[in-house]
Amino acid sequence: MQARTGRPGKSLLAILLVATGIGPLLSYGLNAASDLVISELGLSEAQFGLLATACFACAALGNAAFGRFADRQPDSRLMVLVFAMATLALVLAAIPGGYVLLLVASGMAGLAQSFPNGVTNRILTERVPADKRIGWIGIKQSGVQVSQLVASLGFPALAAWIGWHGASAVGAVLAGLLGIVAVRVLSSVPLLPAPLVPVTPAASAPDAAAPAPTNIGFLIGALAAFGFVNGMGVQATNVYLSLFAVREMGFTLVLGGMAAAMAGAIGVTARVGWGRMMSRGIAAPPLLLLLASMAFAGALVFTAAGATGSAALLWLAVALHGASALGVSVVLMAAVVRSVPASSMARATGLVSAGQFGGFTIGPLAMGALIGSPGGFTLGWSVTAGVYLLCVLLALYLVVRRRRQGRAA
């Protein structure tokens, strides 16, 4: 069997992808059916944005608070937690209990996103050979965009048939079944054998090539900061993309869901592609600068689409969003896996993820307030462009700092 040879197969990669994507399933589904949810519950745009804020606030707190706890837990127990909480969130959303219950469900979906990045990164470090790890990060991080693709197509279609509560119930059944499969697959893949290091004076001395703890600390802080700023733009766009397409561009509910699905589909390809580039040894700062520049251009095209009513510009903006902002996570996670030992992987990953989710928390709430103001979506997209411009400046600083360190070395 593949697992006994130390060369884990595609089944492990598949469950890593699913574990990364199962937590956001409810949020993406609600976003895709946003016009229906808003009208049925009588919500304002800001109230709808608060659902995403509750989700990502819980995710940010969970990633920041549970890192040390996750480092002490076995992988199988964390997998059970991830899928159980995602299933419970979808079950709560399936109950027609009003806005408050939906807020609770969104918070539970956020807690389900407290552990996936940390545990999947640790699984890669401890169970997957080094030559596969960085490439696999791109694939497993695409699970979030696979979730966006599936939810954006499935929720509107199911909602038209059995309502969005029914769509949530279908999602709950799916999440529960996938959780059972994930735990079974994980139990069949052993840890890699520990490397044998000869005890010699050279081996016992500190590795001169290894980054100093202060450098690792700076790296984690810088990645978290970039993830925070990028995260504001990502979810400001994701949460209101379908609503923008329906209300401002005249799309149907299903076609608006397809716009979000297209962003997810392109995001899947982008994350895999950026992961492969990282696996070839490309440093994170130049890639972050490229992605930030593309995201900034995408926000400007969203603004132009709203001003002109051009569907072609909307699709172009969606493509830029999917290829750039949605690809940032894989670069951040690959940088963590490259630099952090397995014993601290969950905590380090949690801190970087907390930065991202902190941005996810603010973005939807701010965007909802902006589009509910007289400035509408035009103001919202303009501010989003400003957020991505800040990402460009942060990435540029990291590039310059890296070059200076290279010259000094």
Automatic annotation (TrEMBL):
Keywords: Membrane, Transmembrane, Transmembrane helix. This is MFS family permease. It is a multi-pass membrane protein. Gene3D superfamilies: MFS general substrate transporter like domains. It is found in: Cell membrane. The chain crosses the membrane at residues 12-34, 46-66, 78-105, 162-187, 208-229, 249-274, 286-307, 313-337, 349-372, 378-400. PANTHER family: BLL3282 PROTEIN. Residues 12-403 form the Major facilitator superfamily (MFS) profile domain. GO terms for molecular function: transmembrane transporter activity. It comes from Paeniglutamicibacter cryotolerans. Pfam families: MFS_1. The keyword Heme does not apply. InterPro entries: MFS (IPR011701), MFS-Transporter (IPR052952), MFS_dom (IPR020846), MFS_trans_sf (IPR036259). GO terms for cellular component: plasma membrane. SUPFAM superfamilies: MFS general substrate transporter (SSF103473).
